[in-house]
Fold this protein.
Amino acid sequence: MGLYTRTQFVEYFEKHSNLIVILVDINRFSAINNLHGEAFGNKVLRYVGILLYRHFCGNGVNVCRYAADQFALSCPTMDVEKVDVLVDEIRDKLERQFYISGQQMTLNVNIGYALPSSAASGIHLMAQAYYALSSAKSLLSPSTVRYSEYLEKHIGRKYRLGVELKRAIDAKQLHVEYQPIYDLESKRVVKFEALARWTRNGEAVSPFEFIPIAEELGYINQLGNLVLSIACRDLKLLRDRGHDDVQISVNRSIQELTNESIDDCSILKIIHESGLSTSDIVLEITESIPLEDKPEVQELLGDLRRKGLKLALDDFGTGFASFSNLMKNTVDILKIDRTFIRDIESDKNNAVLVQSVNMLATGLGLDVIAEGVETEGQLKRLQAMGCKFIQGYYISRPVVFEQTLAFLE
Ligand code: C2E
Ligand code: MG
Ligand code: MG
């Protein structure tokens, strides 16, 4: 087959100017490998390679296997509209149903591409396409992204934040705020969620911005451990004041847990070194990637639960958080995402959904927490539905540790 290797592709690229680069990444390819085995995965890759080669090679277009599940195309420059048509065609061809070893398959792809016109920026065109692809992959559904000045500015900030965040983590300059979780039946605060805070040049950077950066640059574990040790230190102070039954929950992404092993688990170490036990801490898991794709993380979570840690499934209803984890008895607590609570009073569908999820999860023995409760109306509505726990600005915004005592005393 006439696919270029990565080296040949880059060589060709260096010799010719005015090329367009298109990077294609198969969405959730690791799941295919996990589910059907690597031999099958290789057949899928071969299929994709042949398809791209047959349909698009020639007339100056080159195709290369760029990385494990990534393919790159280069073609002579053309009008933006024509590139868009070409990119749509690539997606269309790749996302059609096909058969491998009698197994019916459909793929989804993320595509990032860059045009030579933006090469003036000083970032190599290949890197531009790569940034565009990363940006496409960070969106919720498989997408196409063209590298643009906007993206470049964004990357500029991202790069700067990345460097400074690492410094702040090393110097332990992050801090933690706590948001109470309230039990509607006993009318008490029963837990606090620990939320990471980073102030940079006097300005608070949102965790929605810096958490993904820490993940991408590989220091999310260090960040998570810093937050956990601060939370444990603070919880110990509450214990010393006689608050024996309040718990603290910390957030961990699935990606964060891929580097942990049960025999040498930093989470357990930190908890024990703080003089606390596993039942004091709840782990809130966000499914930034489907849990099914990470059997080793599933196993770790199972082990942690057996050691007494409670698991909460965070942001239920968004991203990949799925019913399968509820049915398989892998978590103890379900947190319904605030997007469903927001218009619970006006949107009948959301109300039905929240009520049904609450009923199902409660029936399965889980605790249900409604997130983002901002008004009395929402609280009343949730109470009427039999929802037991709530969290949100109506009870309190996240507060510094010193203020947590006020909720308990
Ligand atoms: P999350 O775990 O779903 O946390 C709840 C977020 O919703 C917090 O945002 C909180 O301030 C906000 N919130 C709470 N009540 C309300 C409300 O009534 N209305 C509205 N509009 N918002 C409310 P925050 O602190 O910005 O954190 C954002 C996300 O960042 C968190 O979402 C969590 O996924 C992540 N995160 C925060 N700290 C950590 C951490 O230490 N490690 C990891 N891996 N992720 C973290
Ligand atoms: Mg959370
Ligand atoms: Mg949440």
About this structure: The mean pLDDT is 91. The longest strand covers residues 188-200. The radius of gyration is 24 Å. The chain has two domains: 6-147, 160-408.
